Amino acid sequence: MRRSTVAILAAALVTLTACASGGGSTATPSGSAGASAAAVAPTKPVEFVISTAPGGGSDLYARAMASIISAKNLSPQPVQPLNKEGGSGAVAFTYVYDHKGDMHYVMITLNSFFTTIITQKLPYKATDFTPIANMALDPFFLWVNNDSTFKTAQDFVDAAKANSLTVAGTGSKQEDEALFRRIEDTMKTKPFTYVPQTSGATVVFRRRGPFARNVSTASTPRASRRRPPCWTIRA
After folding, report:
1. Which residues does 227 contact at the CB level (< 8 Å), separation at least 6?
2. I want to staple 69 with a disulfide (CB 3.0 to 4.6 A). Which of 28, 74, 94, 172 is the partner?
């Protein structure tokens, strides 16, 4: 990662400890990251909570960040990635919310942070959490198996107009499913049979037939077994 990204990670950890301390002194990032962290610092290992299963895009991001924090000594305590998948992110969100005011719980999540909280009517709001940084903007691709008969996006649309296709994505009622529903509405296709998965990795490795897939470029292992039929959607 670039040096600027490392600086963001340091600032994120400092900001989180300041905002989530639930009282006491407030640290304002100024000067070196080390000096700011000294004002309000973790006193035990920090759990870096991940809302998806191992192998997905957010999991890879979190583990890379934790590795950089450790290598650069950006935290006086270990930052330990912890997967809390389930409920389209709700398991992770609730886990962090239940530790409100404790600086030792940091979370990385996706757009589902907003959609899941709204659609599942959870007992908290997005504003009950402290945002630290927007680390990435994902492009979303429509992917199919290499042996699929769909060679272009139009092939996919034509098939979807003729028959209800089975598609897959990460979680339910979040960005992957929402984008397929958007295709339904705009292209007037038959309803998709959407099969939610626990992470981008499990979506990519699912091989039950030539189903289509809406996936971010950050989570496409073994991409040689998949190909995009020329659609990209910026989320």
Report:
1. 143, 144, 146, 148
2. 74
